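thought: fold this chain, then report.
action: predict
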Amino acid sequence: MKTFKQHLTEVENWDNQIATNDETGKTYRVKDMYDYAKNNGKFVQDLPIKDTDALEWWDKSYSMDKPENVKRMKNADTSFPVLAVEYEKGKYSITDGLNRIKKAHSLENKKTIPAYIISNSDMKNIKPVNKENDSDKVD
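observation:
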């Protein structure tokens, strides 16, 4: 079995993945968010899928009519933790792991998934990306 670190290095365009915080409008590198979550957040083995926005976002972002979307979702390894930001008590926005959650829910009939969680207020501790000028600059 691959380690989590091996999994992250195999993710397509891992270094370029970004996420925008809806509350602040700031953009962050997903890798930086994972690093923060692993060191300062919390890990849960059983994050309830119903408490996330993942299925809604998957349906908005992907289509089961496209074979490449279905293939990517089916190939997702649901044993690896997703990255979640708790934006209000008990409500989570998934920053990384939509395909893992879609597979866990739709194909494996799981109600929960492992996750690294950081609070929305912890986002101030992560350097945002200045995407207007250069994706490598930070504010």
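thought: worth noting. The helical segments are 4-10, 30-40, 54-61, 67-75, 98-106.
final: tokens above.
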